[in-house]
Amino acid sequence: MNERIQEKLSILADAAKYDASCSSSGGKRKNDNGGLGNAEGMGICHSYTEDGRCVSLLKILLTNHCIFDCAYCVSRKSNDVKRAAFTVQEVVDLTMNFYRRNYIEGLFLSSGIFSSADYTMERLVRIAKKLRLEEKFNGYIHLKTIPGASEELIQEAGLYADRLSVNIELPSDDSLQKLAPEKNYAEILTPMSQIQLKVAENREERELFRKVPQFAPAGQTTQLVVGATPESDHQIIKLADGLYKGYGLKRVYYSGYVPVSGDQRLPQVVQPPLMREHRLYQSDWLMRFYGFDADEILDPAHPHLDLEIDPKLAWALRHREIFPVDVNTADYELILRIPGIGMKSAKRIVAARRFAPLTLDHLHKFGVVLRRARYFITCRGMALEKREYDEQTVRRKILYGDGQTRSALVKRQLDLFAPEPTIITAPDLVSPQLDLFRQAS
Amino acid sequence: MQRHAPGLPAAVPITALRRPGELPPSFRSSGRFTYDGSFDGLLTVVLACWEQRLWPEAIQPEGAAQGGLFAETQHIETDEERARRVWDGLLRHMPGEARTSLYKTFLSERPDRELLIFRYVQLAIEAGGQDISENFGNDTVRLVADINKQLFREKHRMEAFVRFEKSHDGLFHATVEPDFDVLPLIAEHFTKRYADQRWLIFDRRRGYGLYYDLQRTDILSFDAASDAPRSGSAVSAAVLDEREPLFQTLWQTYFDHVNIPERRNLKLHRRHMPKRYWRFLTEKQPRERRFEPIQNKNNAA
Ligand code: SF4
Q1: Is the ipTM value over 0.95, yes or no?
Q2: Average pLDDT, chain A
Q3: Which residues form the signal peptide (chain A) (predicted)?
């Protein structure tokens, strides 16, 4: 019995791990029934995998049996893999016992499509319901909605889950048609707008009647796979921007395409594009917290993110006319846009300058990276650079200093997001054993 | 995200730190103090400094104190009543949040924490009602803010890295060794979260723990090593709940399987989860064999 559950966990965690979403934030569920758990605070990463990703939730599939055949997915029907399925009780047990030991913030449950979409969705909902009503579980629950599941089931899912997600996976309808023939954009976007509507309705109702149960209080998210299909970074961040604005998504996750699918429809890449994924997350961050517009970050003339420098620096280099900016007088919004100044130092700058004019020494102590910022600021009217350099020169100076080798700062950053050499080196080693692919639904 | 309205009125600059050797007008001379090392004790010292109009050159816990060659050191007895007066009085000079940040500075256990706290209070008083907590140009203020950031991070790490083991009598217990004395700061989090199970979190380095008995959470001290609850690994299998080893193995199984070998990046791994925490993490304990990625059968095979 124990070995059986261990095997199931191996198979169904392995099949779920390519879903990048692991956040447990945004919950508002208080422990007010004397039960177990509390999801009202900020999310917690209880552990980190050896690739440095956050482990916050027990992220598993209910089953990896699937009637669909999406090329990018390890669980696709045509792939000859070990299959397994949990029972409802097994998932409940694992969640409760992991939570009690402070291993996790909660459950992230997804599934291959077994028998039919509704049949599968109904089981996901049953697990969430059992956790909430029978086990008095107040931890975090994230349910993936199964494509094609009925509106009623999604409605019910939202009553027990903190967050719902519908994965788009491929950044254009074209790619979707090629690689996931049973899916299409319309079918993915319909449940998304349904959820958006319910969340909004629910918020209004709860303002009037506090007793109305919450609907997916932590909203919805989605994931885009990057590097499996030909879309440009500009297309990808435009899509993300549209999802934030049009569908009120809480997060868009980007998942660098990990090679090793034996499927003929996909490119045989050797390393996942981790740097590109990282730059996309930085751009996403600029849109959500730094007040940048998607079209400011990239445009049809610059459709790809620069892998060597971060998107904020790239933007500043293209806009030399805006700089230099004086740190003692500029608005917070503009200070945030200076390369080398992050949110923490920007806040300190605008707070501290109310007391006394700031000097360079202050900036340094606030954590401003002067090596970068020096080309873009003045401090009490004084520039740090005597000459005005053009875009290319500044870029070179930041990357290489005055010499030929990359500056330590840049190297460190590149290092951190370059995958370490792995066992996969030659394409012929790629497919057979490591065909443990990507994620469900 | 919090945004500052552009163009906030600039406030009057605060008195710069005095030059070395120069005392603020309300002090007649300087002195050295020792106390029992408790927070109440420190507050009592602060009151004594004001009453005697002595600017503290050193405030140190007894035992840790290194007397200067010539300096005379005064020991101040802790007085809860007087400590409370100071604690309440602080609110006349600073907002509650700033006062809390001073308590957290104390929990950092830095050797200069006492003087830092005293200096901060003095700055606040001299500012005459103006809130100084965002005057980051001032070294004392910035240091207190930075220490608070560090404490917050350590508190957050404890909330993440505590690993409970269930014993046969239903108690969930964990051992930790945080960098700072953060147990008082995590009590509320664990009490809310684990309301329906008894638990104990033991700080092995500082020899005390938090214990929740389904009603309330108390601080328990363990004087001698002998009555300290045995630490995680030392609890013999006999007293563990019979399903405890199963769940530990399952958690290790899970941990190994969420890893994506193609993305392996130990630098990032260690940056998020520094090595010193590993000894208490179930998933980082040695196991007979690592759980390898599922060897999926493949048509080609
Ligand atoms: S992505 Fe979902 S629907 Fe497509 S094959 Fe995988 S499990 Fe099935």
Answers
A1: no
A2: 85
A3: none
